[in-house]
Q: What sequence folds into this?
């Protein structure tokens, strides 16, 4: 989720490297630490489901037992933050309390109940008698995760990594440093209680320099997941050749088709914009079909303004409702992150589709329509990770989709797209079991034929 | 497939940009061409299966009817190549004949029979009454494909792109320029006969500069597939932030466990090395367990040398069989691409696994063993795209795996791994169909619960 307020990246930029204060991972040993993480991954990848789930249960119990320690360390971070004069919103995200901790523990126990994402057989093919091919999911590798100030992200990430059998290199926000280190101390306890876990399965980086260096090691780090502001994600994407799972922008649209149920349209649009305006799946641009613009807009504008929305309109919109701010070309690419909404009248469905594909960020876009043909055309022609009919864009979320756990939301076109659950942390390998076959037997004049029988 | 001889990349490097000779795609209009390709993709993505399959049938028929034209243009390329003194191997790859063309036509008709890779419902979930989520495969986008001298690659690629509903920007080898342009002229005929195809669904680039420029446009090109030498693939990977599907190296291993059926081991190892030594899935390093090294190696070396293999041994190997060349550390990372094979004696299974994970290229590795525990340990612990038991590494191939079509072989850890079929050219989107739901209804005190019922 994007947050429109001061962000991790700004903290990273302003942060001075201070080895004595954060000694877990000095920069000069980074490469050897990444090598150890890679080796740890190779061990993690061979753990059984029972071993991984037992570690999750231990982790939940250790957090439960150490709640006071965690709250104490978090209190020190908060005291420092108060001294530094951070915003109240940041304070809210930084602060742990007993309720948040028991939610965390419950979250880990819920995750434990999910099926193991690794070891799933995607397909099995009999190539020939005694020659059977299996395509099976396997853990992906070393995952680099850079996140913002919320210290409760760290146990969530660690439990996703345990569940999927990967290794992780983490970097949290500076302002949560003691809270993060406290969680890492619990990881040490966990490793002692679960000797099947390799010590280096989780590594906490302590500086922005270390993150920058890590991005230069595609031989050790297989996937990077930045969880923070647009700027953070864009900086990471620009700085690395490692695949990045994430999204820089969330410019989401709703298009109101002439066949829409206009009574339901206004509350739905207000929900998509205002239910949590800082979220990446919040609405930024409303497209209104000209056939119903004069009928729909006056009432909508009144109710939207009552709900606190600030509307910016195209010329056509302004000609129907007076007194609105004017929307310029830049507004069609804007991710306001607040209660501002750009409104544009479009001549027909195809113009709406073209606008979305041109100006959108391929995140989440919705059509309001009763007409089935218009619905299907929109769903198929809009090139976005999530395409909705008659539902708020705010539904684009791993929890709401029922994924059980969310790694992040991706607008990439490869690997994983949209809200990504545990399946984003696995890939597959092909296992072929034979009894001594050579390829020569299947080539040339007397070649044996392949059976290619799905099992 | 990697080929060890002179490669596309070298041709690209030596090629002078000559706009008059190859006027299909001058450099200065590249960005607008990529924009058109992106727009063409948006149209292609909405074609029905019937429209795509009808285009494939037309394409096959047009190639069949224009065989003489294709052979004539190809003959001009060959005449030029003979004048330039190209190698006989390159000549073989460059040359089209009636047999190759009818194979091509058959290949397109076979592809047509495969299921549409797009439009497959991967999962469907009832979030609530009247709120249903579908995860559906969709075409991926604009695919950039850079390939070598074989002109028969072009119709293969074009048909894969048609079948999957993507758009493509292509660059072939300089020496096949007239053959490639001839195929593109048939694409113009195809577009006239199939007015549902957008004109820009296939674009042929004409210079190395254009390829380099294309790599700078991740906003238009979604995936790059280099089909050629190691150097080509490495250069492409180093030059772009666009995801690359491919593999730079194929350092493949066979490990002979003490429980192996030694009678079958020797022919299998010889097959893996010599059946087509230039292939990326050919064997490069043989690991022999010390428990059976003294028993196995003397007979193996004799037969391998009779089969033309050139063996390089570690110290232990040399102490068992005299007269072998010595293998240095660099040999464990070598992709010989010829009949050379490095041989190393290892103390046990775990040492073999460690060697493979450390020195290998994560492409294809095999164990020869009768012991089930050793087999499973190897399959799970070796971090490669293809892991085999008692079978030649040469089986790692889309045709042999029964994928129906092969886009390439990938050693990446995201998106697609191992031999990649049509599924590598699709991703998925989430389609949510509701009747006016807002997220607010599912939040807070009187929140509606989600059902999350798999359909």
A:
């Amino acid at each position: 989720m994007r947050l429109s307020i001061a962000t991790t990246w700004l903290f990273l930029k302003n942060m001075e490297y201070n080895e004595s204060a954060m000694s877990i991972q000095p920069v000069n040993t980074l490469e050897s630490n990444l090598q150890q993480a890679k080796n740890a991954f190779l061990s993690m990848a061979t753990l059984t489901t029972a071993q991984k789930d037992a570690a999750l249960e231990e982790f939940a119990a250790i957090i439960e037992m150490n709640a006071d320690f965690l709250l104490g360390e978090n209190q020190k971070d908060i005291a420092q933050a108060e001294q530094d004069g951070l915003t109240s919103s940041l304070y809210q995200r930084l602060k742990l309390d007993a309720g948040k901790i028991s939610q965390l523990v419950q979250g880990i126990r819920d995750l434990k109940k999910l099926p193991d994402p690794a070891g799933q057989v995607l397909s099995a093919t009999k190539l020939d008698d005694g020659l059977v091919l299996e395509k099976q999911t396997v853990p992906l590798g070393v995952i680099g995760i850079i996140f913002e100030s919320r210290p409760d992200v760290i146990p969530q990430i660690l439990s996703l990594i345990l569940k999927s059998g990967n290794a992780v290199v983490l970097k949290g926000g500076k302002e949560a440093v003691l809270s993060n280190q406290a969680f890492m101390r619990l990881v040490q306890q966990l490793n002692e209680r679960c000797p099947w876990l390799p010590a280096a399965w989780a590594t906490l980086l302590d500086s922005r320099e270390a993150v920058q260096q890590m991005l230069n090691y595609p031989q050790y780090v297989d996937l990077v997941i930045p969880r923070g502001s647009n700027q953070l994600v864009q900086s990471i994407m620009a700085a690395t050749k490692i695949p990045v799972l994430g999204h820089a922008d969330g410019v989401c649209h709703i298009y109101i088709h002439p066949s829409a149920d206009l009574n339901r349209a206004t509350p739905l649009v207000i929900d998509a914009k205002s239910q949590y305006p800082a979220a990446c799946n919040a609405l930024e641009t409303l497209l209104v079909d000209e056939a119903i613009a004069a009928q729909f807009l006056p009432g909508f504008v009144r109710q939207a303004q009552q709900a606190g929305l600030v509307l910016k309109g195209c010329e056509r919109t302004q000609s129907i409702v007076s007194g609105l701010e004017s929307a310029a070309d830049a507004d069609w690419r804007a991710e306001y992150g607040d209660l501002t909404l750009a409104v544009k009248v479009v001549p027909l469905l195809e113009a709406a589709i073209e606008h979305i594909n041109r100006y959108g960020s391929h995140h989440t876009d919705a059509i309001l329509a009763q007409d089935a043909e218009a619905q299907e055309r929109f769903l198929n022609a809009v090139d976005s990770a999530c395409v909705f009919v008659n539902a708020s864009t705010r539904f684009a979320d791993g929890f709401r989709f029922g994924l059980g756990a969310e790694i992040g939301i991706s607008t990439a076109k490869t690997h994983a797209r949209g809200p990504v659950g545990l399946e984003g942390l696995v890939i597959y390998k092909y296992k072929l079991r034979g009894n001594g076959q050579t390829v020569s037997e299947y080539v040339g004049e007397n070649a044996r034929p392949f059976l290619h029988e799905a099992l």
